[in-house]
Amino acid sequence: MTEFWLISAPGEKTCQQTWDKLMAATTRNNNLSTNTKFNIPDLKVGTLDVLVGLSDELAKLDSFVESVVKKVAQYMADVLEDSRDKVQENLLANGVDLVTYITRFQWDMAKYPIKQSLKNISEIIAKQVTQIDNDLKARASAYNNLKGNLQNLERKNAGSLLTRSLADIVKREDFVLDSEYLITLLVVVPKASYNDWQKTYETLAEMVVPRSSNLLFEDNESGLFSVTLFRKAIDDFRHKARENKFTVRDFQYNEEEMKADKEEMTRLSTDKKKQYGPLVRWLKVNFSEAFIAWIHIKALRVFVESVLRYGLPVNFQAMLLQPSKKTMKKLREVLYELYKHLDSSAAAIIDAAMDIPGLNLSQQEYYPYVYYKIDCNLLDFK
What we know:
Blueprint: E1 3-10, H1 15-28, E2 33-37, H2 48-80, H3 87-90, H4 98-103, H5 118-156, E3 182-190, H6 194-200, E4 214-218, E5 222-230, H7 234-243, E6 247-249, H8 255-310, E7 316-323, H9 328-339, H10 352-355, E8 370-375
Antiparallel strand pairs: 1-7, 1-8, 2-7, 3-5, 3-6, 4-5
Helix pairs in contact: 1-9, 2-5, 2-8, 5-8
């Protein structure tokens, strides 16, 4: 489980004291969580009105960017197909695993200059991630179309002899071609009926060429037999074959069509291989970009919420806690005792969602300290 709690509390005499108190309460005797300081630079505060409006906007942006991060991660897993188990090693942020990136977070001054207003920084992130989302839709659509067309062709070449393409099974010499009177038909015969076929095929209709039947191919259930007869006996032969549970396939030997199908398959397969490498690289780069943007939004939210709650001048310590599933409830209680003096109205809301399985209170989660969850379990199949 990789869940982090990003919290903040006001500085005591110094922010270091705030940190020391948290460490004493959560690690000294009870080992409730693994903690690291979360470094947020001195951002431009702006006016209170702007901060209040920005708080709502950042909540929406947080949800949007998280959804894009998850979409890119999930699509990476889809594209990797048989190598899905390697997806985690491709989901990196700035070249390191996600836990390392979060626990060693440093604000990216080049991408998100702190001389800009908070609103401008949030707009830079929104624009960047919207572009990633749009690009993902376009790339995924193109690749999925290619993959779908290839799968359709592959499906044609697999499965039951009753439905699959026969182009890669039969050869020119299996047929009587260019005859005005004779034609070769292909018949699917269940394995259990091979003897019946051999005994009866010459008498299913008049004008069947004796000893003209050959077994061309078989799968687990059936065999594909050729048989040659006069063209005018086709309908009668089909009808009698059906009565005997032999299936005459609609197939005409056409080398040009068969060649075109094979070439299309080769082309699609080559195109898929050509697109695969660049697509995986794009997904890796843009997963990293989106994830980094997401953690910067969390930092912005902590900053804005801390200023709104704890006031000016800016004086708070942001802290990253990694609880284990077993310690979550106890950790909530300890944090409540530690910070309840900050906001008496928060009372004893100690995550009812933990006690009532299936109840999601995430929209109403409120604690006397600033709190945001970062969940690194980004894939549905995990």
